Amino acid sequence: MSLSLSELQLTCNILNSILSSGRVQEVRHPSADALILQIRVPGHTYEMLVHIGPGQSRICITSVKWPNAPIPTGFVSKLRKELVGAKLLGIVCSSSDRLVTLQFSLLTKDKQYSEHILLCELSGHHANVFLVDPSGMILTQMLPSHSHKRTLRPGYIYERPMPTGNTNATNRLAETRAEDISTAIESLYSLKSAANVRHDQWNNLLRVTNSAIRKMQTTFTKVLGDAQRASGADELIKQAELVKTVLPLLRKNIDSVTVTDWYDPELKQVVIPLNPTIDPQANVAHMFHQAKRLKAARNLIDNRLSKVSGDLDLLKSIRQQLLSKEYNGDLDEETHQLRRMGLLKAPCSTEKNDNRTPIRQCYREFITESDHKIWVGKSATDNDTLTVKFARSHDIWLHATGRRGAHVVLRIEKNQIPEPQSLADAALLAAHYCEGGQNDSGVEVAWTYRKYVRKVKHSAPGTVTYSQAKTIWVTLDSTRLSRLFGNHEDVNTR
Description:
This protein is of the alpha+beta class and 494 residues long. It folds into three domains: 5-164, ibrinogen binding protein from staphylococcus aureus domain (ibrinogen binding protein from staphylococcus aureus fold, Roll); 190-345, Orthogonal Bundle (Helix Hairpins); 361-492. The chain has helices at residues 5-19, 74-83, 181-230, 233-245, 280-323, 332-340, 380-390, 420-432, 478-486, and strands spanning 23-31, 34-41, 44-51, 58-61, 87-93, 99-107, 113-121, 128-132, 138-141, 256-260, 269-273, 361-367, 373-377, 396-400, 408-410, 442-449, 453-455, 464-466, 470-475, 489-492. The strands form five sheets. The protein has a seven-stranded antiparallel β-sheet with strand order 19-16-14-15-13-12-20.
């Protein structure tokens, strides 16, 4: 929840004692609902955060290194023009509502003082920040106003909100020392902010993935229709061959011919349409030409169909991974895959490139009670990497039967027989990390040696064939899973 009125009044009194008479050095806008004012007082530089996000409205000194948006909004540009270099005269919180007033004074080039007021409404779901002149006219605002009772937009006189009268809310900062107020406020909101940022990222990735799946399914349907039309090449060749058998008997300017179908066991009569504007020989040549074009197109269409099908399978795999990570889990791999497919833009880096490739985590590692390592692929692409590049020929390879899921590798020594408990641990992880595995009471898991697993050429990531396999029926065991997750760590691809 946002800061209460009593918490806000206490915070503003402390901020006023620290920042009053300081000068604004910089204005930053890390997100659509956050504003940073860098204020210099003798001997120290502070960064004051004004946040108006739903349930996160607050004002405090922040020690977090908030990023700066690459392109400033009109609101930020106006604040930089009017406030950078200005002196902060005071910070006051209203006694009846969560309205914070910051007064600034700037000595202009013509030796005149220019005064501006920053009004921060930090209440409810319609929090906002306004810059007004001494007469109260709104010069700019952080967000468009959604108020139905007040007209709040540039060029209009600012109207104060109606008092809420809620002055009895709990003060969570009442016993906090003055010097620790901002730290206490940051701690109240840090976890919530991080969770909101992650969930927004998850929502965006899922939205992009679902949209891409819908478009890819439409494309697949169209390409499949093209493939069906291209299959008419064989029928055209058949018709051309039949017309050739009666070609000497045909006259010009006919629009069809009835011939015996020598390819039919019953030797039925068939009617073949012709183009009357050209002679019979030209009709036959045209049929062969069209059949040749359709055959060439069929090869291209088959390749296209294979690619679209592979992309569609990959997108469904990414969606399944995202659905299993709604509340926790790293989203870097899904982001990387969507960027590689051209569905997400690469972020604009404002830092110098040090030519170092970041090390990406490839698989999860678990340790059995007998100290055997179990590696679990984190995505379809990582399944390929794990199986093809990391697993040895004598390692045990496991996968849930008939379901999408992680490739699992149980590391054993050469010529060693897999220890039953370790094999059971690996099978349990294969069941846990498969599609629907966390909800089913039991899952069938196949296992074989890595040397019997083959990557399918030109197939979607994670697609393999295997032989010499045995199966295990796995019943989900929460106690065993808890023990395995207690020994879990992510391993780098290096």
